[in-house]
Each structure stands twice: as C-alpha cells, then as structure tokens.
Design a protein that fits this description.
Blueprint (H helix, E strand, L loop, with lengths): L2 H8 L10 H26 L4 H30 L4
Helix pairs in contact: 2-3
Length: about 80
C-alpha cells in the first residue's frame, strides 16, 4: 500500500467522538474489570484445598468489586453533571 493510499484510508479516523477521552477510559476500564470479575469465582473454586491461593483470589475479587464500584460512581457523577 502506498503512503498516499494509507493516508486516504485513515484521514478521517478520530473525527467523531462519542464521549470525552477520560470518559471513554473509564468505560473501557469498567468493561475490562467486569470481564475479569466473573472469572474470580472459578479461580476461587479451582484453589480449593490451597488456602493461601484461595485467600489471594478472594482478596483480589474484593478489591476488584471496590474498583468497579468506584468506577461506576465516577461515571454516574460525570453523567449527572452533563460531563459525559
């Protein structure tokens, strides 16, 4: 592909934004964390009989739930004030 063709193909990327970058980052990270959260129950079950490993996954799950709650709160605040 020539440089001219490439430039033509990408010249309009990024012109449309659904939300501000910082809000997109919050949504993206929330999605990533939600995807990880549902896996922790399986990790906890897989660690049965290995209490230190099981305790680790329980702590990680709790931390992730706190992170998710904070992200949801931040998003809610941005939506309420019209900054989303």
């Amino acid at each position: 592909m020539s440089l001219e063709t490439y430039q033509k193909e990408v010249q309009h990327l990024g012109e449309s934004k659904g939300v501000k970058d910082h809000d997109h980052d919050l949504v993206h990270d929330l999605s990533r964390r939600l995807d990880a959260l549902w896996r922790y129950d399986q990790y906890i079950a897989n660690a049965e009989g290995h209490e230190s490993v099981k305790s680790f996954w329980i702590r990680v799950k709790q931390q992730e739930q706190e992170n998710i709650a904070e992200l949801k709160k931040l998003l809610s605040e941005h939506i309420k004030v019209g900054d989303f």
